[in-house]
Amino acid sequence: MFRILKSLILLAFLGAICAGAGLWWYSQRPIPMGPGSVDLNIPSGSSMRGAARIAASVVAVQPEILVGLARISGRDTQIKAGSYEIEPGTTPMGLIDQLTRGDVSLQEVRIPEGWTFHQFRAALDAHPAITHASQGVSDEALLAQVAQAEGGGGEAANGDKFPEGLFFPDTYLFAKGAKDTDILRRSYRLMKKRIAGEWEKRASGLPYTTPYQALIMASIVEKETGQTKERPLIAGVFINRLKKGMLLQTDPTIIYGMGVNFDGNLRKKDLLADGPYNSYTRTGLPPTPIALPGVAAIQAALHPADTEAIYFVAKGNGTHEFSSTLEAHNRAVNRYQKKQAG
CATH for 23-101? Predict the structure, then answer.
């Protein structure tokens, strides 16, 4: 009897060794799949067993074995929700590593400096990896929703609560399925942080009473030039005009005010048509920003160049000629207009 019991124990021990060896062998073999990667989405609140079942629905793995591997390694309670990308060659143990480390696959959306809020929303709407939670919501209602979620209006409480300029242009990384409202919240939060930080360090003697006014100036600077070195000079010119009570006379404000009616050509009648964004007929800053300014434009608006220039004209090569008198400006205009005409 003792011999039989001893034999049974030995057989069980050997079986356990074989099972363990088989499980280890399975865990280190690549999961059978095609040449391309496979997306795996694990919802929030999923257990290891639930995640294993979802994984088994997209790739050829045994869910029981995945659960067993997770338990043996002590990670069966460490599953992390998110979007994952299973690459060819991934092993079951490698998949466990991904799911417990949270190695989610990240998407990105790039919002260039100088874009409008309308363009920002269009980019989010067009991205296939984004959950479109804001469709059908007006710009103003969306701003109110985002501002409230971030703990208050801040700059959004200024004026008519228009969203233009209140979102920071950047490249945003996100997990597949992220809500567009979450990305907008990050962008709004980042712009508040940027403008607040630069406002605290601003130069003295600026003609702004609020950070929002500085943001308006930054948006104009952003649209006037793509040359980083010229931005402080452009800002200096416009600040000089504000201090002198001169018209800003900047085309980008008119173009913004025309909206979808702008066909690519700015005509004399457009310069004469009065409106809140026509800086040829109205003094001071326009009522809102006209674009999403980046860091360099914000810094230029709050740290302008010390210049006597009040005029500038495009040279035709992406840079500008700056002048402190109308006579010098007219000469520059004639010179560069002839070059461009030739």
Answer: 3.30.1490.480
